[in-house]
Amino acid sequence: MFSKYKKSSAPTPGKAPELTAINGGAAPAPQPPQVERKAVQVAKKPAQPAPVDKEKKRKERLGEIKLELHKRLLDNLNLAALETASESDLKSEIVAISTEALEEMAVVLNREERQQLNQDLYDEVTGLGPLEPLLADPTINDILVNSHQKVYVERFGVLERTPVRFRDERHLLRIIDKIVSRVGRRIDESQPWVDARLADGSRVNAIIRPCSVDGPSLSIRKFSKSPYTLDRLIEVGSLTPKAARILQGLVEARLNVLISGGTGSGKTTLLNAMSCYIDHTQRIVTIEDAAELQLQQEHVVRLETRPSNAEGTGSVTQRDLVRNALRMRPDRIIVGEVRGSECFDMLQAMNTGHDGSMTTVHANTARDALGRLEQMVTMIGADLPAKTIRSQIAAGIQCVVQLNRLSDGRRRVMSISEITGMENDVITMQDIFVFRRRGKSETGEILGDYTMTGIRPKFAEALASAGVDMDPSNFKREEATS
Asked: Fewest CB within a 10 Å sphere: which of 175, 307, 321, 371?
C-alpha cells in the first residue's frame, strides 16, 4: 500500500511486457552452431562484440526501464500533493512504486543500480533530470547542452564533455519547458528562444528548432550558492587588496560605477560583490532581463522584464522598468546590464540625484564601453548631438571597471579608470589601477602584474567628503605580482 501521495483513482497498470534482467537473472544466451574452424577465424573474429558495446546496451536497457518507471510514477503519484511533500517522504514513495514495478516487469538490478535509478526518477519528478548532478557540482561554472546527446561543462575555465545524455529531443524539450514555465516564460515555434533563470538565480538561455538546426540547445550560467565577496575575489587572484579597497570606497561614497567586460568575464559577480557595501538603510531597485542579482540588503525591490505574449503584445522592456523605477523613490538604481535605449534613462537617473547607481555593459575595454553607451543612447531615436550624449556620460559616471576573461580561463579586473570630464568632444579618462601582461607560461597561464599607476584620482575628494577613510598611500605606485 502506498501513502497519500498515490492517486486514489489511478487505474491499475497492466502488466508490462517482461524485460530481460540486467544483472544476475538472465539465462545465458544460446551458443551459435559450430562452424568450420577457418570460417570462424575469418568471420567471427572481427564480429566479436567489444566490452564497450555491452556497456552501451546495458545503459540503453536501463534507459528503457527508467522511461517505463517514469510513466508509472506519473500515473500513480498525486502531483498536486507533491508540492507539500517532504524530500524523504517523496523518495520513500518513489522507492515503493519502482520496487513494485520492477517486480512486475521481472527486472533484476543490483543495489547500486537501484539507488541510481531511484535518484534519477526523483530528479525527473522534482528537478531537471540529467542536469541535477551537474547543478549540484560546485566546481562547474557553465552547463552547455548542444543537443540531447552532447552535454559540456566548464570547470576552472576549461570546457569538457560529460557522459550526461537525454533520452531524446522530447526529453530535453520537456526539461526546457519546465525551466521557462516556472518563471512565466514560453518557448515554441513562434518564439524559439528565451532567457530565463533557475530558482537560485542561475542564468538560462534556450533555443529550439527551427532556429537551432541540430535540435534544442540549452546554456546555464551557474551562480555560486555562497555569493562572491571582494575578499574571495582577492583569494582567486581577480584583483588586489588595494584595488578592492578602492571599489569598496566607490560604493560607500555613492559614486556611479559602470562595470564593463566581455561575455563570461564576471561582471555580474563583481556587481554582486560590490553591492555588499551598500548601506542597509538605503532603498535599492534592481532591473534585469532575468533576475540574477543576489543582493544581501533587506530593502531591495527586484524588477524583471516580460516578453510579449503569443499575440505579440504585453511586453515590458528594461526602459519601461527604469522609467517606472524613477517613481519608486529609489536611493540607488542597479541595472543588471544595459543593452538598448534604457541606457538614456539610466544616465538621466545618474544625473538627477540617484547617486551610487551601478550597471554593466558588454565591451572589451573601458574606452569601448563609453562608445557602447553612446551608441545605445542613439537607439531612442532622438537626433541628439554626439557632444550632448558624451557630456551626459561624463557627468553621470565617475568610474569604469574593466574585466576580462583571459585565454587561460581566469577572470581578472584589468583596470579601474576614472572619468575626469570632457576635452573638446572627447571624454577624458585616467587609469588608477591596471593589470599589465608579461607573457604566458609553459602551462598556458597568463603572467602579469597588478599595478597602481600612482595617479591620485579626483574622486579622492568625494571619498573624503563622504567620510570614507582612504589612506593616500593606497594610490601610490606599487608593483604587485598576480
From this structure: 371
Nearest partner of 25 among 98, 110, 101, 104, judged by Cα: 110
* Distances 464 to 186, 460, 471 between C-alpha atoms, Å: 50, 6, 10
| 108 contacts 117 by C-beta, under 8 angstroms | no
272-305 as b/e: b if 16+ CB within 10 A: bbbbbebeeeeebbbbbbbbbbbbeeeebeebbb
Any idea which residue has 555613492 for its cell?
A: 254
pLDDT of 57 > 50? The answer is yes
Residue type, 349: A
Strand 284-288 to strand 332-335: parallel, antiparallel, or no bridges (unpaired)? parallel
For residue 32, how many other CB atoms are within 10 A of its CB?
8
Pair 168, 148: CB distance under 8 Å: yes
Residue 470 in contact with residue 452, Cβ under 8 Å? Answer: no
Handedness of CA 54, 60, 65, 70 (dihedral sign): positive
- The answer to whether the beta carbons of residues 187 and 177 sit under 8 Å apart is yes
d(CA 99, CA 69): 10
Residue with cell 519608486: 328
Cα–Cα distance, 458 to 455 (Å, whole number): 9
| Cα three-residue angle 187-188-189, rounded to 5 degrees | 140
In this prediction, residue 143 carries a pLDDT of 95
How does pLDDT run across 103-161, given as a tens digit for each residue?
A: 877 777 888 888 888 887 777 777 788 888 898 888 898 999 999 999 999 988 789 99
Mind listing the domains of the chain with CATH numbers? 1-25+47-126 (no CATH), 132-221 (3.30.450.370), 230-481 (3.40.50.300)
Please state, as a whole number, how many other Cβ atoms lie within 10 Å of the Cβ of residue 7: 15
Indicate the pLDDT class of residue 40, thresholds 50, 70 and 90.
very low
Mean pLDDT in residue range 424-431? 94
